[in-house]
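Exercise (ungraded).
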Amino acid sequence: MRSYQKIAGIFFTCLCFVHSSGKAQSVDYKAQVLFMYNFIKYTNWPVVESSFTIVVLGDSPITTELNKLASIKKTPDGKSITVLQTQDVNAITGCQMLYVTEGLSKEMPQIINFIKDKSVLIVGQRDGLVKKGAGINFFTQDDDRLGFTISLKNVEARKIKVAGELLRLAELAD
Amino acid sequence: MKYFIPVFLIAITSTVFAQETLTTDSLAKYYDMSLEDLQKVKASGVSSELEKFLNSLMSVASQKTLSTRESPSIVSLITEEEIKKSGARDLIDVFRLVPGFDFAYDGNGKIGLGVRGNWVNEGKILLLMDGLLMNDIFSATLSFGNHFSVANISRIEIIRGPGSAIYGGFAELGVINIITKKGSELKGGYVNTTYGQTSNAYARRNVEFGVGNTLKNWDFSLTGIVGQGNKSDRTAIVSQGLSGGGGPGSAPSLSGSYQSFAGNSRANPFMLNFKVQNKGFSFKTVLDNYESTIHDDVDTTTGKWLLSRRAFSSTSEIKYDVKFSKKLTLTPVISYIRQDPQTKNLNTGSTYSQTTAERMKAGVLFIYNPSRKINVTAGSEFFKDKAINKRDSIQTTDGSVTSISYGNYAFFTQMMLKHRLANIILGARYDHNSKYGKAFVPRVGLTKKIEQWNFKLLYSGSFRAPTIQNIVLGVRQVGTNGTANNSGINPEKTSIIELETGYQITRDMVVTLNLYQSSIKDPIIYISDLNLYTNGNNAGTRGLEAQWKWKKSWGYLDANYSFYSVNGLSKISTYATRQFTSSDAIVPSGSQLDKSSLLAFPTHKATINGSINVHKNISVSPTIILYGTRYGYELQQQSQGGFKNNIVKLDPTLLANIFVYWKTPLRGLDGGLGVSNVFNKAYNYLSPYFTVTGSYPSMSREFLFKLSYNLNFNSK
């Protein structure tokens, strides 16, 4: 029994030792940004602004990746993309797309209350956020492919139209 | 033992990693990806070689496809690439590398499987080939050693723990599902030749072959193996039975002789595997006529073994997936197994049938996925086993009968809920056996993957009714003087709890550690010197398994360590490390040599195997297996003449293989050269229970040559 404990101890020590030795499989925000860019391409907003604004609610590495997108890409109708980041729900103004990070997904009731019926496509990082009022949420499939759920009810309530090409790839919530 | 841990440490701390970066141009192209390609994008980015492996979907643990890290069992996945590059000669080479798996000697020339220190070869592990039962239904045993083809394997999915809640009976302590190549994978044919030679004799000369393709919606394949081989080439003492008592407190005297196994230990494979599929319909059949020498009677004129056994088994299954909607599938299944083993007199060439066994089975499987997060599986099945002896009646411990038959119906269900906090699995199986009544086994599991970490907490029960052979030779109780008190035998019941944690250190490296404890109530055990089965007291083992895997574009390295102990747990006398004497066939008088260990299987085992691509077409694959101290019975010659079967402590052993694989410039032609048992160790397969037949010698150093030609019908 003592050798049993000894070996288990050594194994966990090894585990701790190698803990910081490299990056492993985790969330790839570049992939989420790729999907969000396609959401922009295959979605129509009723209100045309001079630039397309994405707000990231919460602290997340996705802001850096979105800024990379904004620096090299424009929307299909030629508008530049602006990325803002905030921790404050009350600071979400003048955006077409709102990315709600996992950490602030519990703020959804306040977000919905603040945005009211404005044409903002809410994209949730957390699976199941469409049930709380988001238009789209990401999820990871069993084989690690990135998937997304769309709630047409939530999207169309904000007068946003999603093209059929995108819907064909989506899991429909309603 | 002392060198196990340093080797494991060196392996586990060797860390190399690389980060991929994208330039602005390539990033712009990335964002212009087509919608079609978008569907293939991974949530964690471009998968490394290891991540492709970890994200492989497998269904053996739950009927629903899940990744290895989320499957609700302790699982192992072995790929075609690993088998091919390692130069594995047969399934012994493949399964020896699985944590907790090892081989032992079952008597009569049969090499069988042990898992986590338990002897499981008799009905405690389920071997499936494309879902078809490969266990001998007469006794539920398996026979390894140049038997199954390895060239036709696409992958092997293994549960290193219980699977009875879904699979029933034989899945008590493990499930192995060998998935062979489909027509869509073959799209042509292959011929694979293997030749193995030792200094004493040829070890094997096999031809493996396959052909398959797709035609409209049809997918068909035919694969197989035919050949000749030997299980050993060494000389060993063989027992020819008791010659007298050994006196109080000493081992029985045996008559025996030294005998060469070279050319005298047949392992001749013959197996065909045909499968055809069209949308939801599938038909599969496996024919097996494996011939192996029976190490029982010696021909007095030639000095060689007199008899061999041919399996002569066929297994077929038809099933059809009726899809009522995307969410609901109903699958009726019918299967038929017939096993008509033949015994052959190697001197005269004449053959005769042994008892014939057959199983007819029908069932229906219902799979309902109301959402991505919920899976409900339910099913029912009925099978009937029947054994007859065409020449004679069947002699049982209860008298003479013309046939033995029993039926078993079962209902099982399982619900899987993928909740944000954890995946929850609840399942249960109810069996009703016409001879042994009802049984209920539950299953509960929690699995969770949190970024680099994964966790599993699993509990499962198992139930196994006695097989035909258990009924024939079963007694409820054996007296201390070796007499059978009552006919009949009880089913055995098992419960197992398991805990696993895994951590993906880098994109290319992962470690896992699992702990387990199994408890078997009324285990069915074999009393070899009386040739009877009976129920023992409680049994079971506890221990841990650790595995480290590093997979890169240059190849892979895999190291694992397995440990079990029975210290403080109930043990069965005939499995314990103690000396049996002539006067105590059932109740041994000697003290245990090691209270933590059981016979045959070392408490410590470590393996290291890998494959390094030294050139784009050449890989070198070394395999090292380190066995800790083992205990078992060995026949030893006495100075005053005659032989005695003494329990011995065998020092740690290191077995090593190496194989060089070469993909030649000629299209479709590849092969390799290898050496198995590089250090020519005199390793013996030990008996996991008390026996007067001693151990079985393994093959000495073997030089291996493989050549394979693959023809692709679609290439121009």
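Further reading is listed at the end of the chapter. For now, observe: Chain B touches chain A through 56 residues (CB under 8 Å). The longest helix of chain B spans residues 4-13.
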